[in-house]
Structures
1.
Amino acid sequence: MSTKPLNVQELARSPLYRRRVMSNRVGLFLSLSAMVVGLLALTWILAVLLIKGFSAINLDLFTQITPAPGTPGGGLSNAIVGSLMLVGVCTAISTPVGILAGIYLAEYGGHSRFANLTRFVTDIMLSAPSIVVGLFVYAIAVATVGNFSGWAGTLALSLIAVPVVLRTTENMLNLVPTPLREAASALGAPKWKVSLSVVLRAAKSGVMTGVLLAVARVSGETAPLLFTALNNQFFSLDMGQPMANLPVVIFQFAMSPYEDWVSLAWGGALLITFSVLALNITARVFFREKVQA
């Protein structure tokens, strides 16, 4: 028994075809609506940040320390330097640890029990609230020592950044084709050299993206620093003492009744936003030119 194929007109009149077209249109409409709502919310947030933040940008913001309550003027120089030190040391710690751990999971660990346990713990760390990390570091590095410090804040930020770098590195290395590894091994290169000089080099752009994601995440973390680095009204480079940082200063100043403090909080929020944006753009342009070269 032969079946006669439907022509275009008959297919357009088919109830099944109409239902599928209607479902496609509804799904497309909902997707576009969600995108528009998200873009409007993001535009609104950025517009308010730009309007209120630019009004607080001046030379004093970068040269003066945070003012006392009710004192006009002042700036965020101590908080800016403190944030740079905390994030810089955190990056120096989390980048090699996360990359080396990611190389182990992708190239050596496979599906062994230890590798699977590491992935499980990493996934837990990725989903753990940052305030829990802050409380944990407070219990082991602040309460036992007896004082808040920049080192404790760096430890808390590193515990947040390492899982991001690790999982991104592992995923990027798994995307490298296996024949590339086999070709390098066939030339007599040992496995460690293949992993570092061939596989990691092929995935360096993706790995760098993971590092940038980790830096972007820890740059605005407030809860862990409230329990570890706390704050410091004065300029200090001593990592063994409480250290000023932008996230905590923004939190405290934004909640204050003083207009000068609130204005400084908007300026600090704008600095963090543009710093992370500039870091991402610079790194992407740099690595794109390196690849083309």
2.
Amino acid sequence: MFVDTSTVAVLPTLVWVFALPPETYGPLNRDTLAAIDELTGPRPPKAGVFRTQQTDQTLHRYAALAPLVAVLEGATRRALADLDVHERHFAITGCWANFGEPGSAHMPHHHVNNYLSGVYYLSAPEGGDSITFHDPRPQRDIIEPVYDSENDFNRRQQDVKVATGNVVMFPTWITHSVKPSRAQGLRVSIAFNINFVDFAETIARPRWKGMALRRPPDL
């Protein structure tokens, strides 16, 4: 009936997965965990449905974690380059560790007031090795038929497999979650947010010019 058929992905949402080689993430993870253990001390088991403990969001400010910060910044530069962002003077605005026991989960959420977010996996054992992204289109469920099977065109959420030594980056606005861990061991990740240093000075300024003023501003 048709001479040609094509399917176009319109306005796709990008998720990056950067994989470090074992010879890099091995010593990096060992030293990072040692530094965090020294900062936090013994962590008692966390009770409750989520069974996750989090550190304060200031890990990027500690000299002992500078090698990890360098990796996170390297992944950020690559993502900004892929997006062809002109203003690339960025900073980590928050960075924290998550310790997930077997059964731990994280409810759907997004991170406000940032441009990119990411997760580095210090330990992603089998059964605790995925992150879930949710469909960002708010009007999607106005009509929701029954599908014969789930595929890339109709799914409501998508799991992305991760591994120890991976950095996953994504737009801050996309809702994401973590399913209950079926792993036997501890899942340990480092979450972080990225924003532009001079947002108010460059990016947030209006991108049009008026014609009614004859004298430049005093400041």
